[in-house]
Every structure is written in structure tokens, then in C-alpha cells.
Amino acid sequence: MLQDIPTVALVNLGIASYLFFLWFSDFKYFIKNNAIKKNAIEGATTTPVVLVVIAFFASIALLCVHTCTEISLGVANEQSKVQFWALFSWIGAAFIEELIFRGYLVVKNKGKLVLWGSIFFFSLIFAIGHPFMWDYTIPENAQFGAGEWKFNFSAQTINATISVFECSLLFYVLRFLPLNENRSIIPCIVGHCTYNLGVFITKMCQGFVAW
Fold it and tell me: Which element (helix H / strand E) includes 149?
């Protein structure tokens, strides 16, 4: 997988770091002026600490449900192996994906029905976009564009895709809860990072991380 390539993983983390730098600049402006800067990056606002705690434990709880579901379905041993470098990709993705999806890919200020319709639609896109039911592999020494598409619609890959869909719904809810008055994406980022790190640790304990 692309996420296992060290260069790709570090580039992904580098892009995430740069975007975080821009986001954090807008975040500091909000703290100083108690107002959103003009053309500020979405979600660069404060949020109650209790919501960050909720995001942390909700993500762990959802991971436990997903792990138990895999075991109960008997597909835990069918999950893919990842390289250690994938962790850097996942950390970078936790911020980039939250900024894009929970930040921008949602329809606000058009009523609750439109809001939730967009949440379900973009959560579906978010889930399908993860390479569980599909993969794009680049063979060693292959020419540019000579990759190979592979598709897999097994119980394990479908379950994994549904799990990502549920994660997306959780992260959207964290942003649009009434408690999150400033619509900060901080709880979303914390929840996503917690979940991704939890998945990596779970894979490592199950022997699906190659060092």
C-alpha cells in the first residue's frame, strides 16, 4: 500500500504539519480576539475540554466495538498487514481528513435535514475512499502509472468500510453537537487521532504490523 512507503508517509505527515501550522495561526487569532478571522480555516476555534475528553473515550469505545465485531465475525485474521511507516500516514491523515471532511465537506446553515443529509453522504464518500474494498499497488521498479487496481468485497473489507463510515458519523457529531458552540474541529481531530493510534496498537498486538 502507498501508506507503507516511507517517502509517502513522511510527505503526508509534512503536508499535515504545514496545514496544521496555518490552522493553528487562525486558532491563536480566535483565542486572542474571541472572533473568527476573515477567511480563517474552518474549525480553528476553541471547544470545551469536556468535549475533547468525550471525543477521546467515544473513539476508544467505538474501536472496541469494531474490534469485537471483527472477532465475532471471525474475520480478525483477514485484516491487512501494515508497515510501521503507516503510523505516520495515519497521524497525518487524522488532521488532513478532519480538515477536509468535517471542516469543509458538509452543508451548513441550510437546516438540520440538509446538514444530516450531507453528513451521511460525505461519510459514505469518506468510507469508500479508504482502501479496504479496493487497493492500488505499484510494483517495484514499475514505470509511472503502471500500478494495479485490486478489488475485494469480502466480509472483512465490507465490515472495515462500515466501521470507517461509523467513525465519520461520530466525528461529524462531535463538531455539530450543541456543546461545541464554536464548531471547532479539535474534538474531531482528537477523536480521529485516538482511533487511528488505537487501530495501530491493536494491529501491533495482533501481529499485523511489520517492523
Answer: strand 148-151
Buried b (16+ CB within 10 A) or exposed e, 72-90: eeebbeebbebbebbbbbb
Rounded to the nearest 10 degrees, the angle between the axes of helix 186-206 and helix 86-97 is: 160
88 vs 47, 77, 82, 84, 105, CA distance in Å?
26, 23, 12, 8, 24
| pLDDT band (50, 70, 90) for residue 114 | very high
Instruction: Please state, in angstroms and rounded to a whole number, the distance separating the CA atoms of residues 99 and 112.
Output: 21
Rounded Cα distance between 84 and 208, Å, is 10
Place of cell 463538531: 175
In this prediction the pTM is: 0.91
- Residues 99, 117: contact at Cβ < 8 Å? no
Question: According to the model, what pLDDT value does residue 1 have?
Answer: 62
Calculate the CA 124 to chain-centre distance: 13
120/181 Cα distance (integer angstroms): 21
